[in-house]
Predict the structure.
Amino acid sequence: MGQFRQDEGGAANRVTDRIARALIWTAKRLPYPARLWFLDRAIRRIVGPLAGFRKRAMEHLAYVDPDMPRAKRRQIAADALGNAGRTLIENYSGADLADRARAAPISGDGLAALAKAKAEGRPVLFATGHFGNYEIARHALHARGYVIGGLYRPMANPFFNLHYVKTMEEVSGPIFEQGRRGTAAFVKHLRGGGMATLFFDIWSRDGAVIDFMGKPAPTSLSAAEMALKYDALLLTYFAIRQPNGLDFEIVLEGPIAPTEPETMMTEATARLEAQIKAHPGQWFWFHRRWKPNRKL
């Protein structure tokens, strides 16, 4: 469960973390709507361009759609950075964010299946992407009686990682770090009938090559493999930011049929693609989802 990733380098990471802490500290002194506006503009106009995130987002947009007008690419890239800024400060705004999440409507065929799985004590895996605010659905479902943990990949910036992880731990169920110990604990959680979220929209060195937005992207099959192995229900959810920039609508889609891992994750990918096409500025285009120059 990630956020901004930085290049390795202790001094650079430390400086980046201090800047992030200063922005967060400043924003939290503001009323909630102003807080989100402040981080939106800070990441959109200053941090994103300086850190190279805007450039990378523009490159990714050109890669998936070479015919897209430059002005449209610039707007989508800017909106993606603004959404990321809002997401960042939202996730440091515990009680305020929880209030918004409780008020967020939830629709989709997954609701009935989720309730049935809970009644049966069956494990549930939620596959999702870095879209909208990916923590909102956990908040909203937690408020409705579901305890949902997660498996996350540590950020490359260890200083930022230390305090950002706490925002994930405060949402609902236990959070497990990828690695031998964390994965073992995650599996134990599932076997006990637990619920958890996994992200699949990041580059996976050992993943299956699945087309994403029309381009090949190595994709982790872990969510599908675990669902099959532990007889877990596999659902997808997405929290769609509303036009006011503050509220959300949550879509909890129906179960992905248990077939074989690549087929299942191809379906999950198609669902994420549909949301991105409908709301292109809400996906984190600056993530290294593709590596065009690397041989697959």
Remarks:
- Confidence is low (pLDDT under 50) at residues 1-8.
